[in-house]
């Protein structure tokens, strides 16, 4: 198997064999010997060493290097641990971009892939799944009493329940570089926090510090996004509309690779002054203003993602969030 075929095979294992850019990214991360190791996985170190005819210590050193680069992951369910490759594009993207020694050309190639290939891949992924991988969570503001704010709707509850917390740089803004919004704002919880600390790609934070990061993110117009399931919310990303994996394809192409929250913005026409601040704040064109004199803001519930960013800048406090979807909308919820 020649070198080019080797990396095409590695790319095919995350479903992207036809992408030469993904193959080149793996080539930048793994030399020929490391590529052979990747193709020998899943395996523990002794088994991989036997497969490759190499010394276990040499294989262990290669595995440790690939772990830091975000290409392999250990399972502690076996002794010795079983190592596997990144399971899909999302994991490969989020882990490898945080490689501490990533050269500029590596990040440039990721940006090229996202600009040139991601849109069509996202469209295919959206059509193939019943529920998106991630969902929006509302901002940390008060929600009307008639709503049912459950633990998995609340960033504060997620932070409160986490046993360990870390913050990492946003992989999307790190590679895309299309805005100057805050960079070190992606929160990792529990197992994800432990992983980022073990790799040296994150720093530990307290619950109080995590809540301050969320507050600053809201001020900067970033949306809270987490994994789309009831249990195991192991990250809270703070996403912008221009660099994020999910937001641009939704905003520009209507491709739903992210679910809305369970809420929708609600306007109190008695308080709304028609100042249009919320129109500028909404990335999804979900809010409009009538043309008649004295018109107030109107929300399109089909477009609203229930992020609540419009609430945080409304000078007359005319906006709130109302429950629009039952708890069962989130996979795994009762």
Give an overview of the whole structure.
The protein is an alpha+beta fold and 334 residues long. The protein contains 14 helices and 13 strands. The chain has helices spanning 3-12, 20-29, 32-39, 45-52, 56-68, 89-96, 104-116, 118-128, 155-161, 171-176, 191-199, 207-219, 247-253, 277-281, and strands spanning 72-75, 82-85, 134-137, 165-168, 186-189, 203-204, 223-227, 235-239, 258-259, 263-267, 287-289, 297-299, 319-323. The strands form four sheets. It has a seven-stranded mixed β-sheet with strand order 6-4-5-8-7-3-9. Strands 1-2 form a two-stranded antiparallel sheet. It has a two-stranded antiparallel sheet with strand order 10-13. Helix 1 runs parallel beside helix 3 (32-39) and helix 9 packs antiparallel against helix 12. The protein is elongated and about 80 Å long.
Strand order of the largest sheet: 6-4-5-8-7-3-9
Reported by name, the CATH topology of the largest domain is Alpha-Beta Plaits
Total E-strand runs: 13
H and E order: HHHHHEEHHHEHEHEHEHEEHEEHEEE
Mean of all residue-level pLDDT scores: 93
Number of domains: 2
Tell me the layout of helices and strands.
Blueprint: H1 3-12, H2 20-29, H3 32-39, H4 45-52, H5 56-68, E1 72-75, E2 82-85, H6 89-96, H7 104-116, H8 118-128, E3 134-137, H9 155-161, E4 165-168, H10 171-176, E5 186-189, H11 191-199, E6 203-204, H12 207-219, E7 223-227, E8 235-239, H13 247-253, E9 258-259, E10 263-267, H14 277-281, E11 287-289, E12 297-299, E13 319-323
Parallel strand pairs: 3-9
Antiparallel strand pairs: 1-2, 3-7, 4-5, 4-6, 5-8, 7-8, 10-13, 11-12
Helix pairs in contact: 1-2, 1-3, 2-7, 4-5, 9-12
